[in-house]
Amino acid sequence: MQRTIISATLASVISFGLTGIAAADIKIGATVSETGPASFLGDPEAKTLKLLVEQINAAGGVKGEKIKLFLYDDGGDPNKARTFATRLVEDDGVVAIIGGTTTGTSMAVMPVAEEARLPFISLAGAIEIIDPVRPNTFKTPHTDRMACEKIFDDMKKRGLTRIGMISGTDGFGASMRAQCLDVASKYGITIVAEETYGPKDADMTPQLTNIRSKSDVQAIINPGFGQGPAIVTRNYAQLGIALPLYQSHGVASNGFIELAGAKAAEGIRLPGTALLVGEMLPESDAQRLVVMAYKTSFEKATGTPVSTFGGYAHDAMRILVDALNRATSMKPAAVRDAIEKTSGLVGTTGTVTMSAKDHLGLDLGSFRMLEIRNGSWKLVN
Amino acid sequence: MPELMQFLLSGATVGAVYALVALGFTIVYNASNVVNFAQGEFVMLGGMITVFAFQAGLPLPLAVLIAILAAAVIGVGFNKLTIEVARGAPVVSLIIITVGASIFIQGVAQVVFDKQLHRFPSFSGDDPIRILGATILPQSLWVIVGAIVVFIGLWAFFTRTLVGRAVLATSNNRIAAQLVGINTTFIMAFSFGLSAAIGALAGVLITPITLTSYQVGISLALKGFAAAMLGGMGNPMGALVGGILLGLLESLTAGYISSQYKDAVAFIVILTVLFAFPQGLFGRSSMERV
C-alpha cells in the first residue's frame, strides 16, 4: 500500500546504476502565497516544499535525478499567480506545477497549465477546481462540500436536524456556505436561521443572539476562516449559548484553540485531517507513520508546529514524486497519466486513489471528526 | 428587550474600538491637515509588539509599556524620514506618502514578527458581565473607558495646554506659528509620536477582542477614518461620537435588518450625514485667512 521514499530511492539507485547516464535535474514549479493575506497558508506550504525537496535529494532524488524546485511567491494575487505559471511553463521548463494556495490563484494557474498540458496540483479547497474534471488539474485538500457532509453526518448521528448557520463573507466562508446549503437536505438537515459577518469584524454577538432567539435551533455551524471563527467562538461563550457548535476544517489548527481560548472552545467539533491528532491515531492506522514522519521533520526544521495547510503541500509533492517514479518518461503527459493512476498513496489528508473521473481521490472517511477537550484535540468516532 | 440590550452592548464595544482608532487621527490632522493612513499600522504595532514581548516572558504591563514607547519612537522616526523630508509638498502628496509608509510598515512587520493571528489574555479575565439579560466582556469596558480617557486627555491637551495650542497654531499657519516662536519641527515630531502612542494604546486594548496580525492595520484605519469623518476630522469629540455611532449602526443593522447589509447601511448613513454636514457632525468649517 504505502510507497515510502526509501523504495523510491532504491528504485532510483538501481535505475541509475543500470543506465549510468549523467543526471539532469527534474524541474518542478510551484507558486504559493508566501506573503499577503493568505500567507498563513502559503508560508507553511513553501517551507514544506523546500523541506521535502531537500529530503528527497539527500536520499538520492527521483530515478537518480535531483529535483530542482522553482518556487515563486504570488502574494495571494491571481494575476501574479498567472504570470508565474506562465514563467514556469515558458522560461523554467518545469514538468509539473504545484500550488495555487487559494482558490483564486488556483483558478488563475489552471488555464495556463491546461493550455500547456502540464500537470497541476492545486492546494486550495473549492470544489470548482476538480469539478468538472479537467485533464491536467488535480488537488490535495478535501473540498468544502465534503466538510459540510462530514459535519451534517455527525449532526445526524447526534439527532440534530434544525440548525443555525453563521458564515464569513470571505471567499472560503461564502463557498462553503453555498455547499452546505446545497447538501443539507440530503442529510435531512434544515437551516432555520442564517447570518453572516465580515472577515474583519470584531463582534458577532448580534448575529448569534438572533440565531439563539429561534426557539427550535439545535446546533450552530460556522463556515469561516481566519479570525472570524475565533471571535464567533468567543462570542458564543460570552453569550453562554449551550447548543453544539461546529467549526470548519478552515480553522483546524492549534492556533485556533489558542486564539479562541481553551475554555470558550470546549466541546467544539470540526472535521480535520489526521495531521492534528497524529499521536492519537492507533498504531494500526495507515496514516500514522506518514503523519508522524512529516510532523517530526517539519517541526525540527522550522521550529513551528505543523499545520493542515503545509500537509496539503506535503501530499501534493508526494503524489508528484510517486507519479514521477512510475511515469514511463519525464514528459509532462506521461507524468499526468501517472498522477491519474495514483492508488493507495497515504498522505496527511488521507489515502489518495485517483481515477479519470476523480482528481482528488479522497473519501469522507479520510476526514476525522475532532472535538476540542481541555485545550487539545480528541478523536470522535 | 435582552436582544436590543445585546445589540447596544455589541455596538458600544465595536464603536469604542473604532473611536480609539479615530482619536489617533486627530493630533496629526490638527498639526498638519494630513490624514495619516499609517495610523492603523501603529494600532497593529501596539498589538503585535505587546504579543511578542509577552510571549518572550515579560509581564503584560511591561510589554504594554514597551509597545507604546516603541510605537512612539517609530512615529517620530516616521515623521523624520517621510513627512519632514517632503515638507513643502502639498497635503495630498503627504497623504499618499502615509499610504506608502503604511504598506512599508506592514511589509517589515510580516518579516520581523510573523504572518499568524495572535492574541494575549484579557486584562480582567473573560467572565462576561450581565446587564439586563445581555452580556459584555470586561475587556470591552477597558476599551470603552480607554476611549473616554483618551478623549478627555486630548480635549484637555488641545484647549488647556500651551503645546496643544501650538499644535493647532502650526496647522493654521506654519510660518505665522514660527514667527511667534513655535518650534514647528518639534511640534510635528511630537504630534506623530503622540498619535503613534495613542494608536499603540488602542492596539493594546483591542487585541484581546479583535485579535491581531501584521495586516489588521488597514481595515482598522479605514473604519477609524470613516468614524472620524462622520464625527468631524480633527475634533476629539467627533472621533468619539463618530466611532460609537458607527459601531451602533453596524450592530443594530446586523440585529434588526440583516447582517448582510451591515456595512452598506453604515456607509449610507455616513454619506447622508456628510451631504448634510460636509465637515462631519462636530467638524469646524475651514477658514481661509486673507
From TrEMBL, chain A:
Sequence ranges assigned to domain Leucine-binding protein in this UniProt record: 26-360
Classification via Gene3D superfamilies: 3.40.50.2300
InterPro entries from the UniProt entry: BCAA_transport, Leu-bd, Leu_Ile_Val-bd, Peripla_BP_I
Keyword terms: Amino-acid transport, Signal, Transport
Signal sequence region: 1-24
Entry's family note: Belongs to the leucine-binding protein family.
Name listed for the protein in its UniProt record: ABC transporter substrate-binding protein
Source organism per UniProt: Microvirga terricola
From TrEMBL, chain B:
CDD domains the record matches: TM_PBP1_LivH_like
InterPro entries on file: ABC_transp_permease, BCAA_transport_permease
Membrane recorded as keyword: yes
Topological category with respect to the lipid bilayer: Multi-pass membrane protein
Keywords: Amino-acid transport, Cell membrane, Membrane, Transmembrane, Transmembrane helix, Transport
Protein's cellular compartments: Cell membrane
Similarity field: Belongs to the binding-protein-dependent transport system permease family. LivHM subfamily.
Protein name: Branched-chain amino acid ABC transporter permease
Organism this protein belongs to: Microvirga terricola
Organismal lineage: Bacteria, Pseudomonadati, Pseudomonadota, Alphaproteobacteria, Hyphomicrobiales
